[in-house]
Amino acid sequence: MRGDREAFGLLVNATSDRMYAIATRILRDADLAEDALQSSLITAWRELPRLRDPDRFEAWIRRLLVHACYAEARRRRQWAGNVRVLPVDGPAAGDDMLSVADRDALDRAFRRLTVEQRAVFVLHHHIGLPLVEIADTLGIPAGTARSRLHYATRLLREAIEADLAPVIPQGRMA
Amino acid sequence: MTESRNPDRLIRAWLDLMPSEAPDRVVSDVLQAAETTPQLRALPRLAHWRFPMNRITLIAGLAILAILIGGGLLLTTFRGPSVGNPTLAPTVSPAVVVTPAVVVTPAPTGGPIPAPLQGRWMGSHRDFVSPDAGTSLLLSASSYSMHQSNDNTSARVRGDASSEGSNLHVTAAVGDGCGRLTEGVYGWSLSSSGRVLSITLDHDSCSVRTRNIPGTYWLMACRDPGTDCLGDLDPGTYESQYIRPLLLDGAVWSPKFAGVTYTVPDGWANFSDWPGVLGLTTSTDFAKTTPSNVQPRTQLSVFTHATPLTKACSAQPVAVTPSSVAAAFTDIDKVKGLTVGAISSLSIGGHQAAFADLTFDAAAAGACGNEISFLKGGGDTLSIGVGERQRLYLVDVGEAGFVAIWLRTPNGASFDQVVAPAATIAESMSFK
Question: What is the residue-level pLDDT of chain A in tens, covering all 174 positions?
Fold first, then answer.
């Protein structure tokens, strides 16, 4: 058992940053991301003996994490307002090309996505997973993963393109 | 468009802005938790079906399996009549466990909280909220949290929750000071209507949870998005959570559980609960309300700090506060167009009270139109329209002035239909 714990400790140290990065991006909330990370790692520890193929650890724990994110997102909906939103100036700031208006537009668009759409988007655009692997990780058909990614990407592109488009004054509609 | 303004690049840059380093305390909490958390047993690998099987053998095998399962169900069903409070009989049945001949006992793992339990529940006062305030319990598929009734944005206690049969497992609590992996087990039962949840302690070493989680909870099924209320009610006695009928006029409001206690028969609903107003209605009328139209046509509402108005057409309260409920009715009777019927005295909640039925004489109201106002209370103005019959109770609650209990119905027929149960409810009320 001690050996199990030491091995688990190594796995946690090796994966926790990457998992936290996924959770913060899906949930857009530091507290909820911490809860999702913690919950998924504890579940992983409890269920580790049932993992039959150690080579699938990474995909397995990613799946646990995404499901924990779903649970946290549902909790967030129920506790409307109980949200410590991530600061606009994140730690990796310094990308001069991204204006405050861009961030705001993307933030607002991202909040319109379902947590399932966000998960696919983050796994694809941030982690770089191909759609087939995302579908396998999340246990959904590849077509579903594709449509979620398509919708999310289109919404965010539209948000940023609307922000880039020149402003044309419009009269009040009748 | 320049390359630096490429939307996809901007999106990637935006994604990169967020933190990517897990806080050390989260990792150390997990590793600490692993020290005390048991792991599940590995599932045995099932041998592959190796011998050939024709259709007849397959059907026979399935039939034997069905008989075994059916027998198990019968054994678990014939347990004799249940004993206990009939209103708390669980309708969400715990999973029926059929013991197979060969058992692989899994470690106790919880499933999701059953759907009928998921939602927001009102609870009585607990020691982690402000003095006198009520609480709310939120249950989702995999979590629970407890809040002060008027503050759903910050949980006082929260954590993971799962269900196993009729047990509720709570772990990973925040705010209970017991560590994230101290697991508590509680029993639950749900009334046949699904509106009353009873939680009892099974075992839990965490004293904060044992003090606060057990108890009776009422489903909050309010249509009004601006407040919390219970919606349809089972017959029984209920407490409000916000209205403060004994708060001195002008004093700072804070929530108080059981400001009004009331008893309803079958077929009633609670449609609002505000610091100055508590609203009840019939279930029939409640069913017609929507989140954008929360006012039912039939209302039995309680208003704090009730004061008669001087004129039917103005919202101007009388200059001198009436000295008694009889004097208050005398003031109301002066409102042009309003007819106050016989005044009957009674006691409500130990306070001196009186009631009278009201009608409206449009011809006598003059320029006031088809509706006149006669009383202010709880921040609202009470009025009566053409064709309406109403009943008004005024309760003298001492320094806090008068409490009004007002039955409003759309027409005489509705009035006749609900006045008797409404009177029973009004006269059951007590205030604190």
Answer: 556 778 888 888 888 999 999 999 998 888 888 888 988 898 888 888 777 677 778 888 899 999 888 878 776 554 333 333 333 333 333 445 667 777 878 888 888 888 888 999 999 988 888 888 888 888 888 888 888 898 888 888 887 776 554 433 333 222
Which of B11, B150, B182 best tests the A interface by mutation, with the highest count of A CBs <10 A?
B11
Nearest to B21 among A17, A28, A45 (CB): A17
B114, B119, B201, B202: which is closest to B162 by C-alpha?
Answer: B114
Q: Which of B10, B17, B38 shows the shortest C-beta gap to A92?
A: B17
What is the rounded radius of gyration, in angstroms, for the C-alpha atoms of chain B?
Answer: 29
Q: Which amino acid is at A94?
A: G
> CA dist B274 to B238, B303, B348, Å?
15, 10, 21
Chain B closest-CA separation from residue A23 CA (Å):
9
**Entry pTM:** 0.56
ipTM of the predicted structure?
Answer: 0.79
Residue with tokens 């014939």: B78
Q: How would you write B225-260 as a 3-class SS string?
A: CCCCCCEECCCEEEECCCCCCCCCCCCCCCCCCCCE
Distance of CA B288 to the CA centre of its chain: 19
